Amino acid sequence: MKVVAFLLISLVALGLAADTKTMLAAMTPTSTNPGCIKFAPYVNNLSPNSGPLPDATLINTLMDTLMNQTLFRCIIIDDLSGIYTTIVQAANTRGIKVFGTVFISADFKANGDIAEAARLANTYPNTIIGISCGSEVAYRNKDLSGTATVVQSCIQQLRTGGVQQPIGYTDTFSSWCNLNEWPCNNGYYAVYNNVDFVGLTGMVNNYFNNTFRISLVGKH
């Protein structure tokens, strides 16, 4: 059975174990729960690429603002190491759920700290509800085979590290389908069969759906 929850990213759950249900419950918008929101502390001209990083005081101030001014009690973050460790700690003290990503760069050379991601998941099992091994990597580099290899390694390292939360991978719909493959899951077959969920980013819109549909003309 596959369940789709629409939010900043869409998730197709490939299994409905207790942990997967917990993740979907936190991330799926309802009349009383708006789901998850992307959280990044780069404000006031701060940048992840240069200059000083956000400090713990700023991160806690932004987290308090989120708590006091919105109904969101679940956040999505782009990494699980570095300053994002402080974000997870701040979320934990406030009862905010975290869907985290292990950062994987398009050239595979600047990847996040997988060991730290596993440590955080094991230290805060009631806060971190799921982990994506990368996001839109194949969309950015067009290297489906290389991306699959790196993602598979990330998944294996997290599981070897004792992570019990759902683990998956997130990319655009067209990237999962290698732009024009049919059936859709050929290129990522090994990844698809090794994840707890498939993540589809906000790029799942009419442009990419139409791109895929047009590429399949005559193939049915």
Please provide a written account of the structure.
This protein is of the alpha/beta class. It has one domain (3-215). Helices cover 39% and strands 16% of the residues. The protein contains nine helices and eight strands. An eight-stranded mixed beta sheet has the order 1-2-8-7-6-5-4-3, with helices on both faces.
In angstroms, what separates the terminal alpha carbons?
A: 25 Å
Largest sheet: 8 strands, mixed
Number of helices: 9
Helix/strand order, N-terminal first: EEHEHEHEHEHHEHHEH
Q: Main sheet: which strands, in order across? A: 1-2-8-7-6-5-4-3
> In percent, how much strand structure appears in the residues?
15-25%
Number of domains: 1
Shape, per Cα inertia axes: globular
Oligomer: single chain
Structural class: alpha/beta
Q: Spans with pLDDT under 50 lasting ≥5 residues?
A: 1-8, 203-220
Number of strands: 8
The whole-angstrom Rg is 17 Å
**What is the residue-mean pLDDT, rounded to a whole number?**
82
Q: Can you give the helix content as a percent range?
A: 25-40%
